[in-house]
Each structure stands twice: as structure tokens, then as C-alpha cells.
Amino acid sequence: xxxxxxxxxxxxxxxxxxxxxxxxxRREATVLLGEKLIEAWAAAxxxxxxxxxxxxxxxxxxxxxxxxxxAELDVDVQELGEVLMRELADAGSPPAHALLMDVGPxxxxxxxxxxLGAWGIQDPGNLGAILRSAAAFGFQEAxxxxxxxxxxxxxxxxxxxxxxxxxxxxxxAALAADEGHWxxxxxxxxxxxxxxxxxxxxxxxxxxxxxxxWAGADLPPxxxxxxxxxxxxxxxxxxxAAGIACYEAARRAGR
Length: 255
Known about the structure:
alpha/beta, CATH 3.30.1330.30, Alpha/beta knot, 7-stranded parallel β-sheet, 5-stranded mixed β-sheet, about 30% helix, about 20% strand
């Protein structure tokens, strides 16, 4: 039987919680909460993005039957009491299973043909939804600019519904435009309507901050502002705008 942890003062639980408190550039570990997310990673574990996460410890809610993947992954198992599993998940209902993952280094090298970038997306759920749209419409990598939420935060992983296991993710300190078509989604004056944009590859499509868009950002001349025509409202949610633009790029490419 795996050890059962029931106290927050337990050294093993305190060490686990300390590993997960490190976020952003210092993050070395994350946790997949719930069978659905764990199984999504398992299905994608042979991809470049999936291999970035390496299983370290299986966490099982007390009095829960083992999951078939426990034996397959051959990692240590710990049982957590309900209070500790709820604390770990930061949710009202504790998951039956969770998987602690070591986070490996980000990818390097040239960008692929279709890339989605997020600049200053602060909400982990929004970032997860943006990554989900990018993966659903065939984008091959995601760039994360300054001010972005941590893509391996448990809330971002839940929001992406497994997209973080399909898309390689890397940080970008600046908009260093290469020879591709670079666009920043922006509904302001002078922006190019989406219908008139050349979305052929190589394509680098960026979405800005939820509240301020691209205010204060220094956009290089090669980066064109791109507008999605709307009526009756001031602006679109960043994740919605990213989804529309990703779909349009996939539609034109015949995907």
C-alpha cells in the first residue's frame, strides 16, 4: 500500500507543495489534476511538447482504486487525504488522481510554419483557451511574451484541455520579426481587416493583453495590426479573437 498523507505538516506534503509554489521561469514541476488531463498527456507523451513533461509521482485520493496508468508509468504513488488533495487542487472538489510532473527545458531552434504568440495574457484560463484554439487549428508552436501567465500553472493546463501537451511552448522577450507574416490582433484605427490579410505561411499571429491590448508595446515595422470586424461591442475577449483568427488561417490553408 502507498503511504497515506493526511497532515499539512507532513514533511512529504510540505516538500510537494513547495515544489509547486515555484512558478514562471523558476517552475521545475507542475501537477496534472484529474484523470482526463492525465490521460490527455498520456495520449500525447511521444510528441515534442508531451516529452517536455516527465512523470515524477502519482497522487491518489485516499480509498480510490488505482488507475491503469500508475503501473504503466512505473512511478512512486502516494495517497492523500481529502483535505490535502483539495489543498493541492485549489478546488472545491478534490480529484481522484493527480500526477506530479517535472518540467523540462523549452524548445530551441527556428520557428515552424505557423506560430501563435501571446503577449501579456495574464489570466491562466485565458492563456489555456488560446493554446487550445491554436492546437485545434493546426498551429505548431506558441510563443509567450512578457507578462504572460505561467502556461504550466494548473489552471492554465485545465484551460488548455491538453493543448499544452501538443504545442511546444517557448518564451519570447521581444517581437523579433523574421521573414514570416507577422500580425498583432488589434481593432484600433489603421488595422488591416482580417479578410484582407495574407495568412499564408510562415505565419506569426499574436494576441495582446486582455485589457490593454498592445498599449505600450513597441511593435516592429514588420508586425502589422490586424482587426476582426465586430458590431455592437467595443472589443472581443482575447481568447475569442485568437480562436477566430486561428480558424480563418486554417480555413484558408484548407485544413
